[in-house]
Amino acid sequence: MENQTNDEEQINMHEEMRRAFSLLSGKWKLEIMWLLNQRIYRFGELRKAINGVTQHMLTAQLRELENDGLISRTVFAEVPPRVEYEMTAKARALGPTMEALAKWWSEYGKSVPVKPASRGRKVKKT
Question: CB under 8 Å to 55, separation ≥6 — which residues?
Answer without folding.
Answer: 47
